[in-house]
């Protein structure tokens, strides 16, 4: 499957770009629903393959298929009426206060073929038919998915389902394709037909690909999710008011063997907090296979580095077992350290530990946390705060720091389990992502759209959303002549 003609794949996507962009939103929405239905129908066989290739549990994978298919349906709902196109029409106005205004019409149009690098840890929701693919297809962009080497058989089977569903729904040939192999992925990223790319994975690989995208003769947007340590903070009031706080934390760290981009890598607690629940909670977690030998080996090395760092005290040592297939099976490792020791350790503790490992940090003063957070955690997908209502004024500076450095700020609960909603933000400042956009929720569509304005264009040459006849029936925001003379009145607000 790695022996493919990159130029031929890219050219198929390029040929499909204009016909696919010209599909009415309701027709494209119907195609997304068809793909969702087909995935649900194929779920039993796909889940069986995924269990074998990834080691993830049937229940987890069943929920992930449901999330993936319903994500496609959500995107269909988001685009069906065409409001996402943000069609704006300014009628000619010779009396326009800034000077005579021509006929100007603006709409969001698909950027063109998109390359999606699939992730390993979500073999459905962030892989072949996952969020990046759904967003690009919803926008009207042909998609080329670079399959992840951790689940190749599943990738091929999923792609076959999607290709068949889109074809039956009348979408153009080349609207969706799959490639495999690291060299092919890099070559496709450099191909002039590709107009944007998305990636979920390690910081090292993501940064390398981002640099390639930026160094092209024609640079392209690269939306890379590179990793996150997702710090969580608990006040003295929260520790007292939430008796299951530490057990909830351990459960979040251990879920899916800690192989989630939103796993809380750090929990800050008051210096005198009782951490006695941690060893008991961790001891009840059964061992879980890591995704593949490469990830297992990396976790093993990272765990050893953390355990060997000065100032670290083990709360739950956990273990790593190697089976006959060179797969690693792990149980949670939880350690504690003082805030000063964490600061002194630097990257030895601050780097992401991808797997079931987390660090509890004891702090002396709540008021010192905002500055510490901003220095140690400049960019994350999430940050979490556990505090009582009575502590609102005391934690406000910390909330400000969390909102400036995180894509999502949680009040209570834990960041694992990202809800797919229209308001969700799954992104964050660098180094969490290369571009601070979202890869979850309907706002993700906008990454693959660009604004185009048409000035004094004849009706016959305007795209459908901007025509006065409005054949797609999309919402059009119109500015009629004569309105500019009333600027500043704000409808009587003054």
From TrEMBL:
Residue spans of biased composition, Gly residues class: 485-494
MF terms in GO: oxidoreductase activity, acting on the aldehyde or oxo group of donors, NAD or NADP as acceptor
Transmembrane segments: none
Region (Disordered): 464-494
Pfam families: Aldedh (PF00171)
Keywords attached to this entry: Oxidoreductase
Domain of life per record: Bacteria
Xref: InterPro entries: Ald_DH/histidinol_DH, Ald_DH_C, Ald_DH_N, Aldehyde_DH_dom, Aldehyde_DH_Superfamily
Gene3D superfamilies with a match to the protein in the record: Aldehyde Dehydrogenase, Chain A, domain 1, Aldehyde Dehydrogenase, Chain A, domain 2
Keyword Protease: no
Domain spans labelled Aldehyde dehydrogenase: 4-271
PANTHER family for the chain: ALDEHYDE DEHYDROGENASE-RELATED, SUCCINATE-SEMIALDEHYDE DEHYDROGENASE, MITOCHONDRIAL
Entry protein name: NADP-dependent aldehyde dehydrogenase
Organism encoding this protein: Agrococcus jenensis
């Amino acid at each position: 499957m790695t022996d493919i003609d990159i130029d031929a794949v890219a050219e198929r996507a390029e040929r499909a770009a204009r016909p696919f962009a010209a599909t009415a939103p309701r027709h494209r929405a119907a195609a997304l629903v068809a793909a969702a239905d087909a995935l649900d129908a194929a779920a039993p066989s796909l889940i069986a393959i995924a269990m074998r290739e990834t080691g993830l549990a049937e229940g987890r994978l069943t929920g992930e298929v449901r999330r993936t298919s319903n994500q496609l349906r959500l995107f269909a709902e988001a685009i069906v009426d065409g409001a996402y196109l943000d069609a704006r029409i300014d009628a000619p106005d010779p009396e326009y206060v800034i000077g005579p205004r021509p006929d100007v019409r603006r709409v969001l149009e698909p950027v063109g073929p998109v390359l999606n690098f699939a992730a390993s840890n979500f073999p459905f929701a962030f892989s072949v038919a996952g969020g990046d693919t759904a967003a690009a297809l919803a926008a009207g962009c042909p998609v080329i998915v670079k399959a992840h080497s951790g689940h190749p058989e599943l990738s091929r089977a999923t792609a076959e389902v999607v290709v068949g569903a889109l074809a039956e729904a009348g979408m153009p040939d080349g609207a969706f394709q799959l490639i495999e192999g690291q060299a092919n992925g890099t070559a496709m990223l450099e191909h002039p037909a590709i107009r944007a790319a998305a990636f979920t994975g390690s910081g090292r690989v993501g940064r390398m690909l981002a640099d390639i995208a930026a160094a092209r003769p024609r640079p392209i947007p690269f939306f890379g999710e590179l990793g996150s340590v997702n710090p969580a903070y608990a006040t003295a009031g929260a520790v007292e008011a939430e008796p299951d706080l530490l057990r909830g934390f351990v459960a979040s760290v251990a879920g899916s063997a800690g192989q989630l981009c939103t796993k809380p890598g750090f929990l800050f607690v008051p210096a005198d907090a009782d951490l006695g629940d941690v060893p008991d909670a961790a001891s009840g977690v059964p061992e879980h296979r890591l995704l593949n030998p490469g990830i297992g080996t990396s976790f093993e090395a990272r765990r050893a580095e953390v355990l060997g760092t000065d100032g670290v005290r083990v709360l739950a040592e956990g273990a790593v077992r190697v089976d006959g297939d060179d797969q690693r099976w792990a149980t949670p490792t939880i350690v504690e350290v003082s805030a000063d020791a964490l600061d002194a350790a630097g990257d030895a503790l601050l780097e992401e530990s991808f797997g079931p490992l987390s660090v509890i940090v004891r702090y002396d003063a709540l008021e010192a946390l905002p500055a510490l957070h901003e220095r140690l955690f400049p960019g994350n997908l999430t940050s979490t705060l556990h505090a009582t209502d009575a502590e609102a004024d005391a934690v406000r500076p910390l909330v400000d720091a969390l909102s400036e450095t995180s894509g999502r700020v949680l009040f209570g609960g834990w960041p694992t389990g990202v809800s797919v909603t229209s308001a969700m933000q799954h992104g964050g400042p660098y180094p969490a992502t290369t571009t601070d956009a979202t890869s979850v929720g309907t706002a993700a569509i906008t990454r693959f759209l660009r604004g185009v304005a048409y000035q004094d264009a004849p009706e016959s040459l305007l795209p459908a959303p901007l025509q006065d006849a409005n054949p797609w029936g999309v919402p059009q925001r119109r500015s009629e002549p004569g309105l500019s003379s009333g600027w500043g009145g704000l409808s009587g607000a003054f």
